[in-house]
Amino acid sequence: MKPNALYALYAAVSIFLAGCAAVGPNYHAPVTSDPKNWSEAPAGGVTSAPMQVGEWWKTFNDPELESLIERAVKANYDLRLAEARLMEARANRSHAKWDFAPTVGTSASYTKQQTSGNLSTNSKANTSTVSQVYDTGFDATWEIDVFGSKRRSLEEASANYGASEENRRDTLITVLGDVARNYVEVRAAQNRLAIAHENIDSQKKTIELTRARFNAHLTSELDVRQAEALLASTEATIPQFETTLKQSIHALGVLLGQPPGALLAELSKDEPIPTTPPTVPIGLPSELLRRRPDIRSAERQLAAATADIGVQTAELFPKFSLVGTAGLQSVRASDWFTAGSGYWSAGPSITWRVLDFGRIQSEINAADARQQQALDTYEQTVLTAFQNVEDSLVAYTNEQTHYTALNDAVIANQRALELSQALYQEGVGDFLNVLDAERSLFAAQDQLADSRRAETEDLVSLYKALGGGWEAPQFAESTAAAR
After folding, report:
1. Cα–Cα distance between 419 and 429 in angstroms, integer?
2. Please, which pLDDT band fits residue 483 given cuts at 50, 70 and 90?
3. Segment 335-393, tens digit of pLDDT
4. Residue extents of the structural domains in the chain
5. What's the pLDDT score for residue 10?
6. Closest C-alpha among 4, 9, 88 to residue 347
7. How far apart are CA 210 and CA 216, in angstroms?
8. CA distance 333 to 336
9. Of 10, 293, 324, 383, whose CB is crowded by the most CB atoms within 10 A?
10. How far is Cα 66 from Cα 282, in angstroms, rounded to an integer?
C-alpha cells in the first residue's frame, strides 16, 4: 500500500471515529443536596466567612509548629508514597493514550536447518539437504476504536489519575493534622508537668508546716501522713505525663521522616500550648464539596467506574484492525538487503467474541455493581464530611465554654487554698480543708491545661474536617520537584 493511500486511510478512519459515540453510559457528576447553613450556630469566634484553606497552622503564631510542618511536608514518607502512587496513575493514563497508536514490532533471525532425506517419496532423492534463511522485518497492528473501548479506557485512567491526586492531597491534610496534634500533645504534657511540679513544691511546704506543728504538739501525726499521701498521689502523675511527652515527640520524629528520638533535644524546652485565633472562618456547607479531597477522590472513582462499564460493553461488538508486515528474506547473506529480498502484506482484520456473550454480560453486570458501590461510597463520604465538620464545631465551641469555667475554678481554688492555709497556721482551721483545697487546685489546674490542649486540637480537627491545608505552597514546590 502506498504512503499516500495510508495517510488517506488514517484520515478517513479518524473522521469516522470522531462521529462515533462510545458505547456505555456517559458520566455526569452526582447532584447532592447540601444544607444551606451549619446546624451548629457560629460561636466562640467561628464565622461563616469564606475559609482560607491554605496554611491554617500559621494562625497559631507558633514558629516551632510552622517549622515542623514545613519539614514534614518535605520528608514525610506517607506523602512520598502518595506521590509515587500518583506517578503510577499518571503512567497508566499515558499507557491508555498510547493504546490509540499502532502497535509496531520488529524482528531479525538467522536459521540453518537440515531436512530429512527419508521423508521424500522419491527413492532416488533420499539424501538430506541443508539450508539457511536470513530474515528481518517488522509488523504493525492498528485497532480502530469503532465502539469506544479505548476512549472509555482513557476516561477511566484519567479519572483514576484524578482520584490519586486527590488522595495525595488527603494524605497531606492528614499529615498536617497529625503534626499539629502531636505538637500540641508535647506542649500540653510539658504544661501539665510544670503544674504537677509546682503543686509538688507547694505540697512539700505543707508537709514541712504539718511536721513543725506536730513536733510542737499543736497537731496530730494524722495531718502529716495525710499531707504525705497527697504528695505521693501528685508525684504519681509525673510518669504518665512524661510518657505522653516522649511518645508525642517520637511520633513527630517519624512524621518528619526521622528516628523517633531525633527531636528530643529540640523540643526539650518548655513552651506554652499554641493559642487559638480570635476568629475562625469556616465558610458554608456548599463549599465543602469543592474543598474536601476525599469527596473529590470519591467523585473521580465514580467517574472511573462509569467509564469501565463502557469498556466492558464494547466487548459485545467486533474489533476492527489494520494489520501489515514487511521485511527482507533471503537464503544468502550476500543478497539479504537487496530489493529482491523484500516482502510485505497488509489488510484488515476483524475479531468478535461471538460465542462469549454470557461471560461479557457478566462482566458488564459486575461493572454496573462497581459503579453503584462507587456512587454509594461518594454519597456516604459527603455525609461523613458534613458530620466531621458539625462534630468539630460542637467540640470546639463547647470546649471554649468548658475552658472558661475551669479557669474560674482555678481562681476560686487558689483563693480557697490561701484562706485554708492561713486559718490552719493560726490554729483555727481544720487541716482537712487545706488538703481538700490543694487537691482541688491541682485537679482544676491540670484540667485547665488539658482543656487548652483539647480546644487547640479541636480547632485542628475542624481545619482538617473543612479540608484545609492541601494548597500549601511547600507541598506544591515538593510536588513540582518530584515531577
Report:
1. 9
2. very low
3. 888 888 888 888 888 988 888 889 989 999 999 999 999 999 999 999 999 999 999 99
4. 3-102+146-316+359-482
5. 47
6. 9
7. 10
8. 5
9. 293
10. 21
The number of residues in the chain equals 483
Q: What is the CA radius of gyration of the chain?
A: 38
Q: What are the backbone angles phi and psi of residue 143, rounded to the nearest 5°?
A: -85, 125
CA dihedral angle for residue 405, residue 408, residue 414, residue 420, rounded to 10 degrees: -90
Give me the helices (H) in 216-292, please. 221-235, 237-255, 285-291
Question: What is the model's pTM?
Answer: 0.85
CB of 193 closer than 8 Å to CB of 185: no
Q: Per-residue pLDDT tens for 260-298?
A: 999 999 999 999 999 999 888 888 888 888 888 999 999
120 — pLDDT class (breaks 50, 70, 90) = low
Largest Cα span, the chain? 141
Q: Cβ contacts of residue 157 below 8 Å, gap of 6+?
A: 89, 92, 93, 95, 96, 304
How confident is the model at residue 102, as a pLDDT?
Answer: 86
What is the C-alpha separation between 232 and 235, in angstroms, rounded? 5
Classify each residue of 464-480 as buried b or exposed e, where b means 16 or more C-beta atoms within 10 Å of its C-beta: bbbbbbbebeebeebbe
d(CA 309, CA 373): 13
DSSP string over 271-302: -PPPPPPS-EE---HHHHHHH-HHHHHHHHHH
pLDDT class of 220 with cuts at 50, 70, 90: confident
Q: What is the CATH number of domain 3-102+146-316+359-482?
A: 1.20.1600.10
Measured between alpha carbons, how far is residue 7 from residues 1, 10, 14, 139 in Å?
10, 5, 11, 18
| Nearest partner of 388 among 472, 303, 475, 468, judged by Cα | 468
Give the Cα-Cα-Cα angle 475, 480, 482 (nearest 5 degrees).
95
The predicted pLDDT at position 217 comes to 83
